Amino acid sequence: MDSLRSQGGIQMLLTAEQEAGRIVSAARTTKLARMKQAKVEAEKEMEEYRSRLEEEYQTQVSGTEQEAAVKRLEEETDGRIQTLKESSSKVSKEIVKMLIKYVTTTGA
Asked: Which stretches are annotated as coiled coil (predicted)?
């Protein structure tokens, strides 16, 4: 009778071991599936982050370029205005003399 009981106990242990193996296998499969899913989600999140940073960078760069262009145009404009002022101040006396001469000689 002891041999029957021990046979039954061994059979129960074998069955329990098989069941434990199935549980562990299912857990591994679930874990691998979840890891793949997490990897896909992380890659998607990284791509969104990278895209957002690239957009911010492009906005910043274009803003900086626009500021530099505005500053350059202001400097060029100021330079041209100064050149015109200098030219007009040099020539203005001669023009006034020429106009006075023209008005005084033509009217007589």
From this structure: 32-59
Cα torsion through 48, 49, 53, 58, rounded to 10: -10
The structural domains of the chain, with segments of one domain joined by +, span 1-83
Which tens digits make up the pLDDT trace of 46-93? 999 999 999 988 888 777 888 888 899 999 999 999 998 888 888 888
How far apart CA 62 and CA 73 sit, in angstroms, is 16
Tokens of residue 76, six digits: 């060029």
- Please, what is the end-to-end C-alpha distance for the chain in angstroms? 156
What's the CA gap between 106 and 28, in Å, rounded? 111
1 three-state secondary structure: coil
Residues in the chain: 108
* Lowest-confidence region among 4-8, 26-30, 39-43, 94-98: 4-8
